[in-house]
Amino acid sequence: MDVVVTGIGLVSALGDTLQSSWQKLLANQSRILLRQPFPELEPRPLAMLGKFPVTLNCLAEQVVDAALQDAGLAIPLADCGVVIGSSRSYQSQWELQVRQRLMAQTLPDDPIALPWLDTLPGQVAIAAARQIGSGGPVLAPMAACATGLWAIAQGYELVRTGQCQRVIAGAVEAPITPLTLAGFQQMGALAATGAYPFDRRREGLVLGEGAAVLVLEPAELAQQRSASIYGRILGFGFTADGYHMSAPDPTSRTAINAVKQCLKRSHLTPEAIDYIHAHGTATQLNDRNEAHLIQHVFPQRVLVSSTKGATGHTLGVSGAFGAAFCLMALRHQILPPCVGLQQPEFDLNFVREAGDRAVQNALCFSFGFGGQNAVLAFSQ
C-alpha cells in the first residue's frame, strides 16, 4: 500500500505556518538571535518563537489544526491514529513546579495534589487525540533527536498495514528551559554566536522551539477525495550504535546500516537519491561523522543541506522539520539552502542558495543521543 502525505502543520522560529517558514528558509534567513529568557543564565543564541518560551500543548494544538486544514479534513476523525512525540516532553513545566515548591519551601501533604498526571510524556499525544475526536491508536515515541522521524515511521506503518485509515504523525518541542540550557552548556555543545552546519568555523548547536506534524493516508483514499498530495513515504531505516551515551560511533557503521536499510526497504539505490536533508547540528562530532557517512554511501553529486542554521536545533522535532522540508522540495522542485554555511569543511555538494532542481527522491537523516540513527525516504 502506498502511503502519502496530504497535510503538514509546522511552526518554527522562522514563521508560524509552513508557508512562511518555507519562504524565509528559501530566502536564506535565520531566526537565531541572542536571547536571555532566564536572568540567572547568560545570554545565548536561541531560535525562539517569541519573547518567552512556549508551552507544549499550545504548540501541539496549533500544528494539528494546521495539518488538518491543509489536508482538507474536518473533525471528528474517529478512525485517525495519533503518533506525536517529544524528546523533552513537559520538562519546562516540571522545572517550574520544582522551582515554585522550592521557593515556597513546602510540599503538599498529598502527592496526588502535584499536577504530574497532566505532564506525563504521552499527554501531548493524548491531548491531540482528544482534539480531533480520535478513537484510534495513540503513540508518543521518545527517541532523543530521532523522535520526529520515528513518529512518522510509526504512523507510516499504521497506515501501510491497514491498522489506521489515517494518522497524524510528528513531534513537538519546547526545549528552552534552564536545565536543558545548562546541560548542553556543561557538555560544551552550545554555540556562542550561531549555528553553522558543516562549516569550518562551526561552534556547536543552537536550541530552537517548534512543532511539525504530517497527515498520512493511503494513496487510494487521498485520490478518492481529490486531496492534494505532497509526496510518498517509501521506507525507513533505524539502528542504534550502543557506543556512547551522547557521542556517535566514529566508524558510522550502524548509521550506514540505517541508510542501507532504508534504501533497501524503499527499493532505491544510492544513485537514485537526489537530495539529502542532513541532520547537520553544527557540532564537531555530528557534522564530521555525517559528512563521512554521505561520502561513503552516496555519489558525490547528491545535493545536501541542513536547515538548522535557520530554525535552530529543535531536538525531537528536527526530523519532522526535515521531513516537511523534503516534501516541500519534492512538491515545488526547489531545494532549501544550508543556512549559515560559508566555508565548507567537507567535500560535499552542498545547496548554498535555493534554486530550481529536479528532485524525484529525497532522504531525511536524524541522529540522536544514545546512538539512535533514523532515515526516511520520500518521493514525488
Automatic annotation (TrEMBL):
Top enzyme class: transferase
Originating organism: Trichocoleus desertorum GB2-A4
Annotated protein name in UniProt: Beta-ketoacyl-ACP synthase
Keywords carried by this UniProt record: Acyltransferase, Transferase
PROSITE patterns: KS3_1 (PS00606), KS3_2 (PS52004)
PANTHER family attached to this UniProt entry: BETA KETOACYL-ACYL CARRIER PROTEIN SYNTHASE (PTHR11712:SF347), POLYKETIDE SYNTHASE-RELATED (PTHR11712)
Record domain Ketosynthase family 3 (KS3): where: 1-380
Annotated SUPFAM superfamilies: Thiolase-like
Classification via CDD domains: KAS_I_II
Documented EC number(s): 2.3.1.179
Family membership noted in the UniProt record: Belongs to the thiolase-like superfamily. Beta-ketoacyl-ACP synthases family.
Gene3D superfamilies found in the cross-reference section: 3.40.47.10
